User: What shape does this take?
Amino acid sequence: MTALAALIRRDIRIALRVGGGALIGVLFFLTVVVLMPFAVGPDLALLSRLGPAILWLGALLASLLTLDRLFMADHEDGSLDLIAMSRTPLELACAAKALAHWLAAGLPLIIATPVLGLLLNLDMVATGAVALTLLAGTPALTFTGMIGAALAVTLHRGGLLMAVLVLPLSIPVLIFGVAASQAAIVGPMSFGAPFSILCALSLVSLVVGPFAAAASLKHGLD
Amino acid sequence: MTLIDLANPTRFLALTARVLPWLAAATVALLAIGLYQSAVAPDDYQQGATVKIMFIHVPNAWLSMFVWGVMSIASLGTLVWRHPLADVAAKAAAPIGAAFTFLALLTGSLWGRPMWGTYWEWDARLTSVLILFLMYLGLMALWRAVDDPARAARAAAVLTLVGAINLPIIKFSVDWWNTLHQPASVMRMGGPALDRSFLIPLLVMAIAFTLLFVTLHLAAMRNEILRRRVRSLQMIQASRIAFSSELGAGPREGSASKGAGTA
Amino acid sequence: MRLCGSGLTCVRGGREVFTGLDFDAAAGEAIAVVGRNGSGKTSLLRLIAGLLIPAGGTIALAGGDAELTLPEQCHYLGHRDALKPALSVAENLSFWADFLGGERFDAAESLAAVGLDHASDLPAAFLSAGQRRRLSLARLLTVHRPVWLLDEPTTALDVAGQDMFGGLMRDHLARGGLIIAATHAPLGIESRELRIGGTA
Assistant: This one.
């Protein structure tokens, strides 16, 4: 446990220090959301209808872009070799890294959501619903995105290739995330059903992501 | 004190140490006068007491642009004249500018609440200020992303100047985009003919806020200079460790003293 | 304790780096792996560290901790220092000590042993290449591992640093440790030579 706690602490520390990317993710989220009205027009009724979708897309892109370096930085400076050799199973180490990333880069997105909800003319209920679905859904984005980040190390290239690999995997999360928020705002579906599926997706990715990432890393360390 | 003297960070520290208390006192005095005058200013016949947000909002909005101007001049100083304090000034100004811009947005949104019924309207002015705020945040992220201040300074200077050229274009585009979608402007601020009873407190507040900026900026520049000194002392310390441990070795001493020279 | 490899074959990128390689090393012994560039010195170390999978042959550690795999009983000092520039010297070291686990020694003493005791609060970004290498060596001292796999350990170290490192390796061997080092330069301690890929 100390080993995992140490890894989480280190990753969060690096993300928050000079040169760390945690807050840039929030800034990207903010920028993407602010850009939307320029494309669709400043009609508040329209914006509040599109709001959940815009917020979800922004969070998806922001969490994906910051994931790019999840394993790459450790690979470049040789830390990944030592992590793979250590007495901590690589699957658990991957899960710890993803958790640290979610805490440093995912959680701030959810905290920023109410402010952005204001810009998109979402009322309290709608903002709360979107924030809740993001809270339940962004772990799934991080843990599936982690697979792409591990593949990026194996393939020695990141960026766009990773986005192309991971985005299709996150479609279910997007569908049920937006569906649950819409259900809470306008109905007619109940909020519970899509939200439960969203939670289930997160739980599945919590299990699948670390194993897939570790398997990919084990073969990519040469 | 000439400009050359000010260019020396040590002289700058000594001078600002003497000036800062006076500046701070003047700021507090003017702010007190301005706030009193704003409080006793009459209510607007349409907006009622809400109009008093203007006395805070307008100075913040003015400073949000003024600070970018200051940063642009400082950036010219970095790129063209290579002035040693220019990038310190630019770096120190960015968070302060962002704070003023944020306050402008916040007060604008509070002012808009009773008029629009929502906290946020994609009004041309507010939207432009929001984009300005994003650019401040981007600039701060740039400063944070690079560890070496000299390298970050040039990148930030280029971005600041590009921003200065782009801001009018952005403002124009947003105005056009806004009128395209909303033929009738939502908000008329005070109108061109502002009554004397409003104008004088507003001017006092604007000067007070500008003084506040100067005070904060000088203090932040001092902090930044000291932060850089800590950094270079740490680098000297690092090279000293190499130096002492390599003292017996002889041939490697050259590299260690070179490290101390650049620090 | 005895580390044996037999019939090892390593294939990388479709190319056979070496084939049928045998070696064995006993506790208290240092093996210097030598050979020309590209002969597979690094690959051999990474095979032992479990970071590469051998195309053939086996590696086994006899007399080690039966609960642990071979890589878990190894320290690997690669070309890259596994340091984070944003963290301080002490933070870097204590992270690896916490993460690697097992029997550990005082971090401050390790830093003193490599000559970095006055640098513990400095960000690792300010360290020179030689100082970074010293910090990596402090990791080997802080966490106990019987087998040290060292890849060109003396690069970036000055003469005084190489002397210091020689002393550390001798201590490790005297305590029953085992060292396998890939090197071009003389290792500075008594060592047996393992030549791979023909003569240089």
In short: The mean pLDDT of chain C is 85. Chain C has five helices and eight strands. The longest strand of chain C covers residues 15-26. Helices of chain C lie at 41-48, 89-100, 107-113, 129-142, 159-174.
